[in-house]
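Late entry, written up from scratch paper. The run itself happened at the end of the previous shift, but nothing got recorded in the book at the time, so transcribing now.
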Amino acid sequence: MLTLQMIQLMDILWKQEGLDLRMTPYGCLSTGDRTGLIEVVLHSDTIANIQLNKSNMAATAAFNKDALLNWLKSKNPGEALDRAIEEFTLSCAGYCVATYVLGIGDRHSDNIMIRENGQLFHIDFGHFLGNFKTKFGINRERVPFILTYDFVHVIQQGKTNNSEKFERFRGYCERAYTILRRHGLLFLHLFALMRAAGLPELSCSKDIQYLKGDPGGSSPGDAGATPHSSRSPLEGAESTQRGGGEAGGGPPWQARPQCSPVLPQDSLALGKTEEEALKHFRVKFNEALRESWKTKVNWLAHNVSKDNRQ
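Output as recorded:
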């Protein structure tokens, strides 16, 4: 739910800058302990279902680069296809940036969906801030974010030489990332405040270092806001919670798991200039595309173990 709220905030910030990335921050309402309501996104399907229904074998479905484009063609005949591809391009850019900045894990093909109008969106945000799942000690999240060649195939309208469309997509990603950096301190403060909620993957200041990197570093003015104090918002929240514990015998959230063993990633690159941060993001962008075959291997294993064919 917290992740959905952060994605909704990102969508608001982007729209304020005139960038509508056609996000789908579906509604989620907590109604009690481990219970709640989730909005149903109509006329949508998972990537796993789309790939499996377009392939004869589950083992090869993840490598069928035409499956997504053909599915969109079947749902958007004629001129409607161009608009659907534009919706896909915009939303894919938004979720690439959002999932990278928030360090969202467990991105298998049943956790990414597409609406019939072309909008791509992610679901099931059980792991964030770089708390990625492992199997036999091996990190299952091997790329900064999900950008596979079948996504690129859709963005390029099925044409291998359509670099103009792809560069426009890259531009959307870079602009979206730059806008979030300008509001970097806002995200740090919000996550610091939410430490009191007792979330297993947001239990101490080290968890928030996924966004900020070096805990001793300061956020420069170009990162989006001029700091009013040399103290980090992470330090402020930590000292406030310690004070509450000493005064009142300890709040309920003190009995929480130890800090998650996550190394600082500096996803917002707040300690860098805007030019340096863009260079940092471009490296991650290229890595996501270059190493996307690892995502496909993960999806293959997922498809074989959970054949959702309808």
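The longest helix spans residues 80-102.
(Scratch paper discarded after transcription.)
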